[in-house]
Structures are given as C-alpha cells and as structure tokens.
Amino acid sequence: MPQSQPAAPTRGAAVRKQGWLTERRRSSLTAYLFISPFFLLFAIFGLYPILFTFYLSFYKWDALSPMSFVGFQNYRFVTEDPLFWTSFTNTLLISAMGTIPQLILALLLAVFLNSSITKFKKTLRVLYFMPNITSIVAVTLVFSALFSNGGMANWLLAQLGIDPMAWNSDWWGVKIAIATMVMWRWTGYNTIIYLSGLQSIPTDLYEAARIDGAGRFQQLLSITLPLLRPFIVFTVLMSTIGSLQLFTEPFVFLGQGGTSSTREEGLTMVVYLYTEAFGNSFFGTASATAVLLLLFTIIFSMFNIWASRRMSGDTDGGAL
Amino acid sequence: MRSIGDQPGLLSKTGYYIFLGLGAFISIFPFYWMFVIGSNPRGAASKIPPTITISDQFLPNFTRATGMMDFWTALGNSMFVSSAVTISVLFFCSLAGYAFAKYDFPFKHFLFFFVLCTLFVPQQLSILPTYVIMTKLEWINSFKALIVPAMVNAFGIFWMRQYIATSVHAELLEAGRIDGAGHLRIFTTVVVPIITPALATLGIFTFMNIWNDFFWPLVVLKERSNYTIQIALQQLFTTRDGLDYGMIMSATFMATLPLLLVFLGFSRWFIAGLTSGAVKS
Fold first, then answer.
1. Does A14 touch chain B (CB under 8 A)?
2. Which residue from B135, B271, B51, B177 is spatially nearest to A127, judged by alpha carbons?
3. Is A123 exposed, middle or buried (0-12, 13-18, 19+ CB in 10 A)?
4. What are B113-161's pLDDT values in tens digits?
5. From CA A242, how far away is CA A227, in angstroms rounded?
6. Chain B CB contacts of A186 below 8 Å
7. What is the ipTM of this complex?
8. Per the omega criterion (within 30 degrees of 0), is the bond before B49 cis?
9. 20 to 30 A from B28, CA-CA: which of A23, A150, A296, B140?
10. Closest to B238 (Cβ–Cβ): which among A48, A215, A256?
C-alpha cells in the first residue's frame, strides 16, 4: 500500500537507469548499502528493545535474577498504584497548563510579528528562539532560582498583593513552576512555526477579502485560522507528545534532596517509569508503564487529530 | 514580505509592539539574570528587592563551581560526544537520504515509509531493554552508549531525502556517471557540494539535541569523570549546602554560552531548518 505513493522527482533518473541490467542491480545494491546503517541500528537499538519491552511487561524481573512470567500482574500493579495515577494527573495538568496558554501566546506573537516591519521580524525571531536552544537542565536551574522561596517570583506576587507561594512543595505551585519552564522554552519555537505558516498564505486572499468588506478580525477568522490549521495541528500534536514525556524539568527541579526521588506534587509518568526501573529495579512494572505511556500517547494523538478534523468541518488531511 | 491585511491603526500598532517587546524581554531576561546571579555574592538570588545588576563576583563563583565539579572535563565530554554523533549523523543520513531520493530499488517506498513510522516511537518505550543491551555490551559508563545508538536517525534521513530530491538534478548525476565516476565518488564530488546548506542545518540541530540531552546520559553514565555537562550541572544542584545560586548560575551560564554563541552565529540555518521542517512534515 505504501508503494502507491508517487515519488515524482526520482522518476526521470529511474527510467534512464533501466538500460543495463547488471548496472541496475549494482546500483540497487549500492542503495541498500547506503540505507543499511539505519536499519541495522534500528534493529538493535529500536525494534528489538521495543518488542522486548512488551515481552518484559509480562515478566517479573530485577535485571539480575531470572525472569518469571506473571501475566498481566505488572499492569495490575501499576494501575492499582495510586502513585501512578498521581503521575498521570500531574502529567495531564502540567501539559494543559504549559501547552494551552503557550500555543495561544505563540499564535498572537506570530500574528503581530507578521504585521510588523521586516527588520524587527528577523531580530525578534532570533530572540524568541533563544530559549529553545537552552538545555532543559539550564532552564530548570534558572527558574529554580526565580522560584526559590525568597526569589523573584514571590517578590512579583508580593507586588501584586498576593501571598508568597512555596513553589517547590505546594501542589499547585510545583505545577505552575514546571509549566512556566515548559512555556518559556517552547513559546518561541511555536511562534516561528506559526509565522512560517502565516507567510505561506498568499496576500491576494486578504486583498480579495478586503474588497468584499471584511474587517481585520473577520479576516483572521475566515482566512488566517483555517489556512493555518495544518500548522496548528502539527504544533498541538508535537506539544502533546512532548509533554506526555515530561521528565527533566520535574526531575531536576524537585530532585535537589539528593535522594533521586521526586516529590509527589511534580511526579510525571516518565519520572514514575524512571524511578520504577532505575530506583527500584522493578523492570517488569517499568515496562508495563512504558507500554501504558505509549497507549496514552496514541489515544491523545488520535483525539487531537479527530478534534481538529471536527473543528474545521473536515476539508482534507492538511499537512499531516 | 509586506505586511498583510488592513494597515492597523496607530493605537493598535503601538499595542502590537508593546506585546512583541514584552515577549522579547521575557525571552532574554533569564539569560541576563543568569549572569546577574552568577556575578553577585552567594545569596543574591533571594534578595528583596531582587538583584538585577551585574556585579564582580563571577570569577569567585565560578571557581567555587569548578571546585565542586569537573566543569572543563564535562564540557569536553559533551563536546566530544556531540561532535562524534554529528559527524556520523551527517555522513549516514545524507547517504541514506541520497539513496532514497535518487536510486530506484525494490521496496524503496515501503522502506522509506518504515523510516518515517519510526519517527513516532517515543524514546521511553525502548529505554529499558537498551539499558540492558548496554550492560551486556559493557558500555555502561562509556561514551559508546551515547554515540552508537544515535549515529543515524530517521529525521535526518527524511530531511536529507527531501532536500536532495528537489535540489540535486538527475542530469548532474548522469554527467558524473558518463565521466565514469563510481557511486561514492559521485556522492562526494557532485552531491555533497550542493547539499551543504541542508547539512549545516541538520548538523546544528543534531549537535544541539545531543548537547542538551539529559535522560539517556543520566541512565548510562555513572562516573563523575564521564559526565556530560548537563549531568554535571544537575549534580551541582543536588549538592545541598543552602543552595549556592551564585555558584550554580555561574556554571550554568558558562555551560549555556557555547551553544548560545553557535546559535547567534548560525541563526539563519536554525530558523530555515525549523520552518521548512515543519512545512514539510
């Protein structure tokens, strides 16, 4: 079924090559040689581990003693562990808190940026992208300082007349702090994606709309947003997948006790997985967690695609 | 490109620029503040009102940091691992991308489809068995565990294929073949010079991703002397003596600086890669 996909640019070369059979076979072999490193590495460090994860999720194993088959017991252990559901809720909350405002903000920045002077546009694009090249560890450390007890975040709250918050232990405080780190690192990235989407919209569409008497807000609703949809779907999907895998921010931010265990308030699913595997040596339940994580990722991705189809009245598949 | 839509009024235009300016301020401020805290005496991070001016304590702070961690070793380790991965990714991904773009062979479309599918598999799904493999190979604690699995990746192949398919013309390859050049020779003398921009973008992105990676090095590196810079920084935060933010921020700043300079120097390639990558996928 994938064979039916056309590969337009290669056709010309392919036809001409078909003259001599030996030459053709030789070039096929060369091509296989060129692509083989990927398949070799993927077989060892991708495919085999993935299959092994599924296999392992039905076994009890601590990486030392022999494995023993336990059926679905690992899955029962994980789904009956309240800590797992805490990590599930935390992940979803932090994802929503970090992603939704972020994408709205990025969209606004991109729309404003698109109607500003070109010279500013280039400089601002670079500035907005700077947080994204910073390592998550560095981001987390800087924000840990900002969110420390007597730090700048609490000072800002005080200026607004709000009581200080214990950002590294309060149930909401931890989530807000982590969501802020995610937002700071990714807003600019999404702004640039949206900006490139905006720049791909032909200008005459707007001119036609203006002649028809459409105001700027109406143009935004009836031209910009529908044509930007593939980009919005892309960013929503990437942010969802990314935030389900949230690990470094909570791990570094809350791991300063030196105990390598992360406080419950900021426990995410991947931190849970990490602790099960490398803290407790429960490789079976950790594998079951990994499989569940994949399941959630698929469910949420499907839901995103379905929702975006729904919202746009289903025109076509867009860029995806 | 010219501005789109109605020319906004002066008032809303001012509003736009304030909003954009605020965005830029929030983007830059943490970098500036990193240096502020790194250059002030220990307790500056929790002063009221907040410290926002640069001071002269950077060297003492950074000296304390290098006393607690092997900063330069860690930086060197990161440099080595990231460079090794980048070079190998550029080589293998461009070769594979070239094969997918310009060769015809059985199952080509299926294989390429397969490569794309692997893009969507989350890393966490394979991490445990990969760890077990590394233990069996006795690669725990070795840079091989970081380098070998990352030597070629699906995104790179996809990226190079797209670029080569549109920018390398069949006539050029044909001309090379008539001149009697072999497959690898055509690749190095004809293809590589044309695809340099795509290589630059892929190289920068790969380098950045490996440099910033935390999860996998955390799993496989156990000895201080082998830490990458990210692990070393995190360890600095773990050692608890009243959290010396001056020390931590000075080290964080020094660790962020190299990549920041690379980015500012090559920002054009970064952003070009980012936008066309998004448009194409």
1. yes
2. B271
3. exposed
4. 999 989 888 888 899 999 999 999 999 999 999 999 999 999 999 999 9
5. 24
6. none
7. 0.89
8. yes
9. A150
10. A256
Query: Which residues in chain B touch residue A12, judged by CB atoms under 8 angstroms apart?
Result: 170
3 state SS of A303: helix
Quickly state the pLDDT bin for B229 (edges 50, 70, 90).
Answer: very high
Any CB–CB contact under 8 A between A131 and chain B?
Answer: yes
Nearest to A141 among B95, B128, B248 (CB): B248
Res. A15: pLDDT tops 80:
no
Across the interface, which of A141, A231, A256 has its CB nearest the CB of B233? A141
Q: How many helices (H) and strands (E) does chain A have?
A: 15, 2
Cα–Cα dist A238/A297, whole Å? 11
Coil, strand or helix at A235:
helix
Q: Which of A120, A145, A216 shows the shortest C-beta gap to B37?
A: A145
Buried b (16+ CB within 10 A) or exposed e, A292-310: bbbebbeebbeebbeebbe
Taking the Cβ of residue A305 and every Cβ of chain B, the question of whether any pair is shorter than 8 Å is answered with: no
Asked if A242 has any chain B CB less than 8 Å from its own CB, the reply is: no
For residue B154, which residues of chain A lie inside 8 Å, CB to CB? Answer: 38, 42
Look at the alpha carbons of B36, B39, B40, B45 in this order and tell me if their dihedral is positive or negative. Answer: positive
CATH number of B69-239, picked from 1.10.3720.10, 1.20.1250.20, 3.30.300.30, 2.60.130.10: 1.10.3720.10
Distances, alpha carbon A257 to alpha carbons A73, A262, B219, B237, in Å: 32, 9, 19, 9
Res A260: pLDDT: 54
With CA atoms as reference, the chain B residue closest to A243 would be B122
Whether residue A48 lies within 8 A of chain B, CB to CB, comes out as yes
Angle at A88 between CA A172 and CA A174, to 5 degrees: 20
Mean pLDDT of A24-48: 93
| Encoded tokens for A192 | 């640039």
B121, exposed or middle or buried, with CB in 10 Å at 0-12, 13-18, 19+? Answer: middle
Contacts 24+ apart (CB under 8 A), A167-170: A168/A144, A168/A253, A168/A254, A168/A263, A169/A263, A169/A265, A170/A265
Domain range list for chain B: 10-57, 69-239
Supply the CATH classification number for the domain A79-311.
Answer: 1.10.3720.10
What residue segments make up the domains of chain A, in order of their start?
A: 2-56, 79-311
Alpha carbon distance A72, A59 (integer Å): 9
Residue of A175, A172, A167, A136 whose CA lies nearest to A151: A167
b/e string for A84-109 if b means 16 or more Cβ within 10 A?
bebbbebbbbbbebbbeebbebbbbb
